[in-house]
Automatic annotation (TrEMBL):
Protein name: FAD-dependent oxidoreductase
Keywords, comma-separated and alphabetical: FAD, Flavoprotein
Cofactor(s) for this UniProt protein: FAD
Domain FAD-binding: residue ranges: 6-351
SUPFAM superfamilies referenced in this protein's UniProt entry, alphabetically: FAD/NAD(P)-binding domain (SSF51905)
A Pfam family this chain is assigned to: FAD_binding_3
Length: 443
């Protein structure tokens, strides 16, 4: 059996695994990503957050993301209606001071939207042959010095042995890596059973009528969302309730899905091309540990949450961003930083989960708009979480150890921001930000 070696083996080529490999490459660390499936064949589920855009921007991908994305409505801007084409029941928006803060706290446009598929395609192009699809992890062993994995090419049946200095499990909620490490997710609990439809439909100027790209619909036939995925003809809908809905997970036929979508849209003759409909269980849980020896968990392998709030994928990508530079340091002889990965990212995941839980419960209730009551927690979980005990005011810029550095333009043309510094590689030691540029700290 052929044996190859890589510094880091990443299992899972979803947005989290691919992003983690891109962050590693930025810090000069070679990696190999394997996945038994082609991740780009999945529907465009999750969307990117402003903080995640900032992170990719620090890799020099700002223009690529802007060109690939589109401008959605501001975060948390929502309309609640009796049907997509029907009457407005009420509207939801962040309070003005929080909405203004999101518009001005970052060098990126808070309305820029990209799906997980968009991100995967962009990162796949950057990684090239660092990604091998159709390759499945069979098992692995680990010593104090090396991880040894056995993989199989699903097309040829050929097995291969891969040794790595470190292993990253980015293989989702049913993580094979997590199971292999013997790590449980003891607090995992289901909060709802949903069906999500991805489809194309010409709904005219309905988004302009809404004044937002996100609509919640409740009527006698269905309780569902209608979210625009491109500002034109591509949509997704969470079908949360309908008469006769079973209490547990259940598949929906194409006929029933289209019937419910038409009821949500408010047009019995709407032409709908259904791309996919998935039955899934929204669950919230966090792994008992994010690390075992030379193996680490990121994304859904480490923590799962409801889609409410839209921070699940983003929290996972930020796991990889945190871990990548620490692995680079470890491979350069400074392994001590790896001990900070779990406590820092566990705190961020817990904040994201708490927000998701509150939003999910509010949306299931459906009778109130949660955007005002959760505004501070939403900004904190998305942009202003801290690694440590210090909790700063999300409406005020503060330079605090363990927190995101405040955004300030560093040039007259407003092309370089202080938040781009998470990707600077000018020196091995501390960096000094001065009005005339970014230099090594020499004091």
């Amino acid at each position: 059996m052929r044996t190859t070696h890589v510094p880091v083996l990443v299992v899972g080529a979803g947005p989290v695994g691919l992003s983690t490999a891109a962050f590693l490459a930025h810090w000069g660390v070679d990696s190999l990503v394997i996945d038994k499936r082609d991740p780009t064949e999945a529907p465009p589920r999750a969307d990117i957050s402003p903080r995640t855009v900032e992170i990719f921007r620090s890799l020099g991908m700002g223009e690529e993301l802007t060109e690939a994305g589109w401008r959605a409505s501001p975060p948390m801007s929502t309309v609640f209606k009796d049907s997509g084409k029907g009457n407005v029941l009420h509207r939801g928006d962040l309070p003005p001071e929080y909405a203004r803060r999101l518009r001005t706290c970052s060098p990126v446009d808070s309305r820029l939207s990209l799906s997980q598929r968009d991100i995967q395609l962009l990162v796949l192009r950057r990684l090239g042959d660092r990604v091998r699809l159709g390759v499945r992890l069979l098992d692995f062993t680990m010593t104090d010095l090396v991880v040894t994995a056995t993989v199989v090419d699903e097309r040829t049946g050929v097995r291969e042995q891969i040794t790595a200095d470190y292993l990253i499990g980015a293989d989702g909620a049913r993580s094979h890596v997590r199971d292999g490490l013997g790590i449980a997710m003891s607090d995992l609990r289901a909060v709802a059973h949903l069906n999500t439809a991805f489809y194309r439909a010409d709904l005219g100027d309905i988004v302009d009528q809404w004044g937002t790209t996100r609509c919640f619909v409740r009527n006698e036939h269905v309780y569902a969302t209608i979210f625009s995925k491109n500002g034109r003809d591509q949509w997704s809908s969470h079908i949360m309730d309908y008469p006769g809905k079973p209490g547990g997970p259940s598949e929906l036929s194409e006929e029933d899905t289209i019937r419910l979508l038409r009821a949500a849209i408010g047009d019995e003759r709407a032409s709908i091309r259904l791309d996919a409909v998935t039955a899934w269980t929204a669950a919230i849980g966090i792994a008992d540990s994010f690390r075992s020896g030379r193996a680490f968990l990121v994304g859904d392998a480490a923590h799962v949450q409801s889609s409410a709030g839209g921070l699940g994928m983003n929290t996972g990508i930020q796991d990889g961003h945190n871990l990548a530079w620490k692995l680079a340091a470890a491979l350069s002889g400074k392994p001590c930083f790896l001990d900070t990965y779990e406590p820092e990212r566990r705190a961020a995941a817990e904040a994201s989960q708490a927000l998701s839980r509150r939003l999910h419960e509010a949306y299931l209730d459906g009778d109130s708009d949660p955007s005002t009551s959760i505004a501070e927690d939403y900004l904190r979980a998305m942009m202003f979480y801290a690694y440590g005990d210090t909790e700063t005011d999300v409406l005020v810029d503060s330079v605090v150890v363990g927190s995101r550095y405040p955004h300030r333009w560093l040039d007259a043309d407003q092309t370089v921001s202080t938040v781009d510094g998470s990707g600077w590689r000018v020196v091995d030691g501390p960096t000094l930000i001065r009005p005339d540029g970014i230099v090594a700290w020499t004091a």
